[in-house]
Structures are given as structure tokens and as C-alpha cells.
Amino acid sequence: NCITIIGIPFGIQSFKLAGYALWPFGRVVIQRPDASPAFGCLGNVIWLILGGIALAISQIIAGILLCITIIGIPFGIVSFRMAGLALMAFGKVVVRDDQVPPGALVYLGRTAS
């Protein structure tokens, strides 16, 4: 994705998803304070068409399969959270629980308080 100038924002979103998938525990997804609503909306529409829906469906299927066993339930819940981020990746940022600014809108995960 990052080979072309047009693909760089989509590559950044892919790396954000990969980092969240690598270590999702203790992290939450919040609204980016400096995000442009117009760019975020346009980026999310293109993201959905090019692969966001497929990513979200695959995460939901993985979450269902992981929730079959007791050991897999925490990972299944994380898969469901990943599905939400896979649908609308633009305009969001992944931060640790202790780095959530006061009054921030938390989309996925839970805060430490």
C-alpha cells in the first residue's frame, strides 16, 4: 500500500490494525483529536469498498470460532473489537488505557478507570 502516494494513508491504517492485532490488551481506540471529518469520511468509504468489509467479516468469523472454547473467549472479544476498527479505520487512533485524554470518545475497549 505504501508504494504509491495515494496508498500511503491506507498503508498507515493497515499498520495501525496490525499493531492493534499484535497486542490488543490494555489498549483502546479513540477518536483522533486532529482528524479531518471530510478526509476521514472519504477515506472510510474507500477503505470499506477496497477491503474493510472483508476484514470485518473475517474478524467476526474468527471471533465466533474463538468464543467456542473458554480459553479463546478473550481473543474472540478482541476479534469483535478488531471488526469495528476494520470497518472505520480513518479518524481513529489506538492508545494505551493510561493515555486516554479526559473526555475522549472511546470506541473500542475499556478505560482503566
Observed structural traits:
113 residues; three-stranded antiparallel beta sheet; mainly alpha; 3 strands; 3 helices; 12% strand
Written account of the structure:
There is one protein chain. It is built from 3 helices and 3 strands; from the N terminus they run αβααββ. With 113 residues, the protein is mainly alpha-helical. It has a 3-stranded antiparallel β-sheet. The protein is globular. The N and C termini lie far apart (37 Å).
| Main sheet: strand order | 2-1-3
Rg, please? 14 Å
Please report which band the strand proportion falls in: under 5%, 5-15%, 15-25%, 25-35%, 35-45% or over 45%.
Answer: 5-15%
- Give the total of beta strands: 3
Please state the structural category. Answer: mainly alpha
Number of helices: 3
Distance between the termini: 37 Å
Main pleated sheet = 3 strands, antiparallel
Low-confidence parts:
none
Mean pLDDT: 81
Oligomer: single chain
Please state the overall shape, judged from the principal axes of the Cα atoms. Answer: globular
Order of helices and strands: HEHHEE
Level of helix content? 40-55%
Task: Write a brief caption for the model.
This protein is mainly α and 113 residues long. It has helices spanning 8-22, 37-66, 73-87, and strands at 27-31, 92-96, 106-108.
